Amino acid sequence: MGEPRRFALNPMDNIMPRFNINFVLTFGLKPGVPFQQVHDLLQASLQSAADELPIFRRRVFAVPAAHDQTNQTTAGRLEAREHPDWTPQVVFNDLSESWPDYQDLLDEGLPQDELDGAQLLPPAPTDLDPEGEGAAAIVAQANFVHGGLLLAACHFHSLVDGMSGSLLLKMWAKHMRIHQGVDERMARLDIPPSNCDYDLVPRAWQDAGNKVPPPHEVQKASPETWRLLGLLPPLFPEEMAAKRAFSLDPTAAPPPPEMQTSVFYVSASAFAALTAAAAPPKADSESTVVPTANDALMALLWRCVMRARLAADPASPAYAAPGALAELDTTLDGRALFSDALPWAYMGTLIFIATTRMAVASVVAPSHRIPLSTIAAEVRRSVKSITRERLHEAYGLAAAMDGAELASAGLRYPFATFAGAESCFTSFLSMPVMDASLGSGVFVNGGTPDYMRPPRREFDVVCRRCVILPPRPAGGFEILLSLKKGEMEALERDEEFAEFAQFLCH
User: Which residue range is the domain that position 304 belongs to?
Assistant: First the structure.
């Protein structure tokens, strides 16, 4: 069938966690529409979307790297391969005889506990052996219930981040509308194949006068610079004996605590009230640090989640020790800040991490003593401190790691632990997902999704989780939180949190 085209991934892609980003989007179907007709549309539109933007047909493989000392080969740097015969197949799954009707699911708020990935997600090989199948950019499964579609889409994170994954879904949706012959008056979406060039990022970095740092500078780099990459400083060979890299494999992790996942809803009016509550006091009206609405949300979540964690485990040194420090990691799309030469719709990965630190006692303090505006201002300062120069310095560390080092240094992610007082929040508030209309031919409401949710209990074996989901078409948005059971019970009793966030379901 011919050789696939090969594309070396860049350093930012190589340091991403090597797992799938999984989400389920739900759509109402018009009465009497056969499931097979919908499936055929999904498959045909994915084919034509791949014809327009071939990244749909890419798979990720690891290029073997040799260790200097042992001369043994290990899986090091990654490459993408693309072939015209690799159009993803949409798996057909009829759940109509075993699942509730679609309207019943909506009436219940689409309970998170029902979203069993074993039923809803397609088989997704992530074997990075160059002789294997590779990890596909996207795999999908169409799950049908009476009156609706639960569409599971899984992106491999080394190839796709939140922004590029959202754009892939919008491109697929565009072709769904084309195949139904409907015009929903959507803004035209054109993404040239040149946006899928992984050399765009290193080229922009080099054009800015940057060079790969020598090994001695890498080993002296500050933890703060590594943290921008979303990493703790790598463990070099002498430190590796008692450590291991991040894994979602439950057999490779200690037994997890009992976890509870809850979904909360923040209405548009509640979000406006929260933003106002986090604004600087009038006496500081001329302050140069003015929190954004997103900063206000991060501040509320941070305070209430840390307060719940403290309430559930008040003796933990991570919270109760004198001078205990809380850390908040939030994701940052780096496209605009990294380089003016990068297209806004760059289709690789370019995620950085903004870290805010405050004393635990200050984070959890009552609002009459430390107002929410103080915490929100600290979040804003941490984000504003991230400059283009800092991003370029962090990129240099990623670029300095060759294939063998990637395999042996044990990349460590701050969020992948239950220990300490770290929190990691991922926000999709600015991601263009919920306006990805599939068209009015076979769907109700123009084919706009009713919900977007991850499958249940994905990260329970390694960490807590907080995901701010995209804005709903009717306004407002949902927050998915996975905490230890006692922590969740404390959060659901928190009066300040309840003032802005309404509990929906488990």
Answer: 206-237+255-430+457-505
Place of tokens 């439950």: 250
Residue 228: what residue type?
Answer: L
Assess whether 314 and 462 both reside in one domain.
yes
Please tell me whether residues 74 and 142 are part of one structural domain.
Answer: yes
Give the residues across from 465 on adjacent strands: 482
Distances (CA, A) of 321 to 303, 360, 397: 18, 9, 33
Q: What is the 3-state secondary structure (H, E, C) of 233-286?
A: CCCCHHHCCCCCCCCCCHHHCCCCCCEEEEEEEECHHHHHHHHHHCCCCHHHCC
Please tell me the predicted confidence (pLDDT) of residue 216: 84
467 phi/psi in degrees, rounded to 5? -125, 120
What whole-number distance in Å separates Cα of residue 296 and Cα of residue 393? 29
Cα–Cα distance for residue pair 42/173, rounded to 1 Å: 9
**How many CA within 13 A on the CB side of residue 20?**
28
What pairing do the DSSP bridges indicate for beta strands 465-468 and 477-484?
antiparallel
Q: What is the pLDDT of residue 449?
A: 94
- Specify whether 285 is located in the same domain as 148: no
pLDDT in tens, 406-444: 655 567 888 888 989 999 999 998 886 888 899 999 999
Check residues 365 and 251 and name the one with the higher pLDDT: 365
227 and 112: one domain?
no
- CA distances (Å), origin 367, targets 82, 282, 319, 370, 496: 54, 16, 18, 5, 9
Q: Is 225 within a domain? A: yes
Q: Is 250 part of any domain?
A: no
pLDDT of residue 245: 46
Q: Which of 504, 502, 500 is nearest to 450 (CA)?
A: 504
pLDDT over 70 (residue 240): no
Q: In this structure, what CATH number is given to the domain that contains residue 350?
A: 3.30.559.10
Residue 66's pLDDT is what? 59
Stated pTM of the model: 0.92
Residues 210 and 183 occupy one common structural domain: no
DSSP H helix total and E strand total for the chain: 18, 16
Same domain, 476 and 379: yes
Answer whether residue 435 is part of any domain.
no
Domain count, the chain: 2
How far is residue 278 from each of residues 36, 285, 301, 376, 494, measured CA to CA in Å? 50, 12, 12, 6, 18
Q: Compute the distance between CA of residue 100 and CA of residue 493 in angstroms, rounded to an integer.
A: 30
Beta carbons within 8 Å of 217's beta carbon, 6+ residues apart: 400
Q: For residue 247, is it within any domain?
A: no
200: CB partners within 8 A, 6+ apart: 341, 342, 343, 346, 348
